[in-house]
Design goal:
Radius of gyration: 17 Å
Number of domains: 1
Number of helices: 6
CATH class: Alpha Beta
Strand order of the largest sheet: 1-2-3-4-5-6
Number of strands: 14
Length: 234
């Protein structure tokens, strides 16, 4: 197996248990920060302490708890902001002049290729970032959970399709790196998600929608629930 070209550090920051990810490309000493928020200077200092230059900011979506540290990063580095065109339209006015992408695009961070997946519908332009055997999922998929669909921009029918697309198109050994530390473990493989994520146990969209919309708030930490069914309350 080829040696990885990158390292990912996960920093749990802020009152909402957000994960801010720092992707570090070994050869170029470039770094990308994913969803900078809350105490983003901690991620900035980590990059500086290792001699990395943050050249890119990757957004999974535009909710406040995933973007409120953008200015901290831009105050320290000349970094380019990236998000999907659909999310920029949903977000509205912003001063960061982002690079707009479409699902399937690649961002090249030195020797590390980062593939952007369009994974709606926590928001219309929610994205996951796939690199190597890692998938940074934002609020699309948590360990044993998925993003709410009852907030502005949400659509549970499309979320059902998104989760099934991830299940079908990615290897079972893919490491899921979520946007929040809500579960009994910080990461899980896609195989573990398929087996134990209650939102991946529904054979049809009707059952999924009923289950998702009846469980807006679950007890944390999330645990595996391989036998989740419609109407089950948490």
């Amino acid at each position: 197996m080829a040696e990885k070209t990158y390292t990912i550090d996960a920093l749990e920051l802020g009152p909402m248990e957000n994960f801010v990810y720092l992707i570090q490309d070994h050869a170029s000493k470039r770094a990308a920060i994913v969803d900078p928020a809350w105490d983003a200077p901690k991620a900035i200092e980590l990059a500086k302490s290792r001699g990395y230059n943050i050249t890119d900011i990757l957004l999974t979506h535009s909710h406040h708890d995933h973007i409120n540290g953008i200015d901290d990063v831009l105050g320290s580095f000349d970094a380019q902001l990236h998000l999907l065109k659909e999310e920029a339209d949903f977000w509205g006015d912003n001063d960061a002049k982002p690079s707009l992408h479409y699902g399937g695009d690649n961002i090249q961070l030195g020797d590390t290729a980062i593939n952007i997946l369009h994974t709606p519908w926590h928001t219309p332009g929610s994205a996951c970032y796939h690199l190597g055997d890692d998938l940074i999922t934002g609020d699309t998929m948590f360990v044993f959970g998925c993003g709410r669909c009852d907030l502005a921009g949400g659509d549970p029918e499309v979320m059902f399709k998104t989760l099934n697309k991830i299940r079908t198109n990615l290897p079972a050994a893919t490491n899921i790196l979520p946007g929040h530390n809500y579960a009994v473990k910080k990461t899980a493989t896609l195989a573990e998600q398929v087996a134990g994520n209650p939102f991946m146990q529904h054979p049809n969209v009707k059952d999924f929608v009923q289950y998702r919309m009846n469980t807006p708030k679950r007890k944390t930490p999330y645990e595996a629930e391989p036998n989740a069914h419609c109407g089950h309350d948490h």
